[in-house]
Prior knowledge:
By secondary structure, the protein is of the alpha/beta class. Helix content is 37%, strand content 24%. The protein is built from 17 helices and 19 strands. It has an 8-stranded mixed β-sheet with strand order 12-11-8-13-16-17-18-19, sandwiched between helices. Strands 2-1-3-4-5 form a 5-stranded parallel β-sheet, with helices on both faces. A two-stranded antiparallel ribbon has the order 6-7. Helix 16 links the parallel strand 16 (334-341) and strand 17 (360-365). The radius of gyration is 24 Å and the shape is elongated. Mean pLDDT is 90; it is low at 1-15. The structure holds ligand PMT. Ligand PMT binds at residues 209, 211, 227-232, 269, 288-292, 294, 319, 321-323, 337-340, 352, 364, 366, 372-374.
Amino acid sequence: MVWLLTVYFPSLVRQMGHLFNRNVLLGVSGGIAAYKSAELVRQLQDRGANVRVIMTRGAQAFITPLTLQALSGNPVHTELLDEQAEQAMGHIELARWADLLLVAPATADVIARLSAGRGDDLLTTVALACPAPLMVAPAMNQQMWKNAGTTTNVAALVGRHAHIVGPAEGKQACGDTGPGRMEEPSAIAEAAANLFQRALLTGKHVVITAGPTREKIDPVRYLSNNSSGKMGYALARAAVEAGAKTTLVSGPVTLTKPEGSHRIDVTSADEMLTVCQRLLPQCDIFIACAAVADYKPASSETRKIKKSAETVELELVRTPDILATISACAKNTFTVGFAAETHDVLAYARDKLARKDLDMVVANDVSDNSVGFNSDHNAATIIWKTGEQSLERATKHVIARKILELIAEQARHAD
Ligand code: PMT
């Protein structure tokens, strides 16, 4: 499949990380997200992986071994104490076969048992015997994910160098909303591929602005916008994965700092500029993803403005253009801007590239509510001086990885 794509659709393969000839042992545990493991098998195979599947008892309540056997092209392993199965490929051989043990979905129970080093079923026993890297894609109710027991178990796995992918935030099968949904199969497969790729940005310092800014009107009111910070935080996560020292300059958001990044909190555009200017001398790649307010009140009141007149006039003045200021001072820094537009997206983006003298622009069509502001997804066209590439709708994490791959490629040419 991948070979065919290489011959006929080279640009498509270039967009995907690959797993050529990698043996991925997929552990499926019992959660509603188990049905997504069928798509995950396909995504792994599309990237060139050989896939074998282990299912826990719970997983078999949600999806049949036959389905995953048909998709993976290999018998599915379910029992530790099965004489026949052990004769075909025993648990030790399975553990040795794997280049990667990927547990997806990983329930709170499986995470706890992996963290405790238990060997009470085939999956956990293979995990104990497996020298390959462990990648875990948690999937559970949001309250279970936030539970202190789960937090401790996940931290223990991270401490033993396991790679955690997700969970994603959003509406859950149980009706709750929050973090706990299994990350999309394409994002998990991409994370697996990235594990085997050379860390693209080792030794580089990437600074990313994210989220909105707030421009104060009085002690209780401000001007701001709908940016959630998700795109900037996804970029930070991808930069850490790519081996970069990563600093997030973040406006007010409710997100958790990506593991391995450094976060500096700011509120207004002026504060964001001050921090970015301070970081510039040590910054190799500057990515302006924040939705900076373009205007702020000419003056802000120290006391709450009382309601009296029917109309109020608010005088606004321009905020500093952080990206343009940084770009004008940047000597050895690769500068990347975002262009959030509702119409003539590419034309405005190309204009920004030239006017702000940038190395790259990520053009975002924010007229479509299913991508851009506050969505878990995005779609973009990446434009640089000598080329451009369109990225189809995908999770912000997948888009972030592509953006960083292109930055690494173009920054290398610029060196
Ligand atoms: O945060 P999310 O909810 O995930 O949404 C992501 C996003 C839509 C906010 C993000 O993908 C995005 O498009 N960010 C840029 C939004 C924006 O302000 O675009 P703009 O076209 O107004 O600004 C152009 C560029 O100049 C941007 O890189 C911006 O960071 C920068 N800028 C703008 C104004 C200003 N005063 N200073 C700046 O640095």
